[in-house]
Amino acid sequence: MANDHYFSADPSSEVRERQVHVTLAGRPLTLSTAAGVFSPDGLDRGTRVLLGSVPPPAAEGALLDVGCGWGPIAITMALESPGAAVWGVDVNQRVLGLARANAAAAGTTNVTVALPDEVPADLRFRTIWSNPPIRVGKDELHAILLTWLPRLEVGGDAWLVVSKDLGGDSLQRWLRETLDDGFQVARATTDKGFRVIRVHRTAP
User: Fold this and answer.
1) CA-CA distance, 75 to 59, in Å (whole number)?
2) What order of strands is seen across the sheet that includes strand 152-163?
3) How far apart are CA 78 and CA 66, in angstroms?
4) Which of 89, 92, 95, 168 to pair with 9, CA 20 to 30 A apart?
5) What is the distance between the alpha carbons of residues 37 and 40, in angstroms, rounded to a whole number?
6) CB 63 within 8 A of CB 86
């Protein structure tokens, strides 16, 4: 359907589930995707850039993948940090089911996949990784980021990958202008037309 997007809460398109072969945290995996989700044919370029450029996530504590889709970022965090509690959040009911199944297929036991409102309000995160849903529109994207970035622990980092052509530079400027003095915003790397933005929390 014309209005059936990967950020729809309940896609109405036919599921058409399929298997994809990916390597996450150095491990070859066979995972499930479907129609009506973001990047159903495998890892998209932005996610590849993010996973190939960020330092390892915190070994312990709570970690977060914002807009988890069918789960590759959350699963990578869980495989790299088995002692951490990884959360993957999304609004698309179809991908929530896929991400849960894929986390189990990858052998992880430390991933919780949930709707945003299901995350405990007092939970704070040591690491956030995200390929955020740019196509939801600027206002909605800004609202998403202002929901989660302030929930970083002091000393924690968020790493966001955004295409230059879809506003990566302007988003970096907006973050720098909007977040308070307790945050440092910088471009960590540029690769294949993507910006990886680091948001570091320095103070409460």
Assistant:
1) 14
2) 111-114, 85-89, 62-66, 125-130, 152-163, 194-201, 183-191
3) 14
4) 168
5) 6
6) yes
DSSP 109: S
Cβ(65)–Cβ(160) under 8 Å? no
pLDDT of amino acid 5: 44
Q: Is 15 left (phi over 0), alpha (psi -120 to 50) or beta?
A: alpha
CA distances 148 to 92, 144, 155, 164, Å, are 18, 7, 15, 22
Residue 128: which residues within 8 A CB-CB, separation 6 or more? 63, 64, 65, 66, 148, 149, 152, 156, 157, 158, 159, 199
pTM of the full predicted structure?
Answer: 0.91
Token code pair at residue 137: 């529109």
Query: pLDDT tens digit string along 2-12?
Result: 334 445 455 54
The answer to whether 124 touches 100, Cβ cutoff 8 Å, is no
